[in-house]
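Request from the bench team (R.T.):
"We need a structural guess for the complex before ordering more fe (ii) ion. Sequence and SMILES attached. Just send the tokens back."

Command: build protein-fe (ii) ion structure.
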Amino acid sequence: MVKGLDKNSMSSQNSNISIPHIQNGLRANKSTSIGRQHIESEESLNSVLKFPMVPFEIENFITSKHGTAQILSADESTGESTQRVTLKKGWSAPIGHFNTDIEIFVLTGKLRQGGFLLRNLSYSFLPAGIPSGPWVAEEDTVLLWMPDATPTYKTKDYASLKQIPENSAYHVKMQHHERMAEYLPAQELHAMKWESTTFLPPGSARKSLYTNQKTGRATWVLGLVPMWIEGNFYAGHPSIEEAYVIRGDVQGHWSMSDDPFNRRYAIMGKDGYYWRPAHIPHGPFWTESGSLLLFRTKNRLDCYWMLHNPDITQQDQARFQAAHGKDNSV
Ligand SMILES: [Fe+2]
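Reply to R.T.: structure attached below.
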């Protein structure tokens, strides 16, 4: 739930990230630390557009004059977070590098990063230490900003360079960076092929944006055709999972943070969002109009399955006995 705005205590600035505006009804003991808090409620699933706006500021990179953020979920101790950020047209930043890995998914607008244009459903993965820029917002741009920790932006090593795209791409810190192969300057969703999904029934497909081969951490877009239905089961994963709805709806039985093991029916709509800890079962789901969602998992996605109740095998004892009794009386 998002209530009780206190603008003085909200911030997305360096080492000062906090989300007191998200009162999610968690019943867990306060000493139970899971990093980010579980964000999953009727309100977050409906739309995050009403989440409060806070200044978006990173030294050497952006000032709040040009950026605002809505913090969707965050680990307040490390700054690892998912934020919906708006950059105003005309903002620019010089060549530099971040001290932490950052994922960017552009929802609308145009953002130039060096020789690459991030626009309508483009994705970028910036490993820590990789030079990027110069940056310019060619239009008002809305994006999901997903740093692994509170970012700082270092420009000192590049200050004497002419601010042109070649000088970040050709830089020795790029071409000889040990994680250069992980760098994804721009992936345009429209140019990518659909792939089969591993666990979901037909009518679903994915476009894989990032996969860490060692840990299985992944970011992808899931597409669901209209009237897709999952089945009569629910599922859990040994991985944290989060999703943001780009368009469409996903209906079903959600594991709300105020009562995570008794699933409640709700509809997730455009700009709906959840961040769910590992081993919280959820589902089953279906969609009316079809859907396009950005997904992230922290580890390899494995599933364990449980029958939804009442289920098609009639294992529900009360129903079974009622049916059995009826049979005997015939
Ligand atoms: Fe899931």
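Two things stood out. Residues 192-324 form a domain with the Jelly Rolls fold (CATH 2.60.120.10). The pocket of fe (ii) ion is lined by residues 235, 237, 241, 282 (CB under 6 Å).
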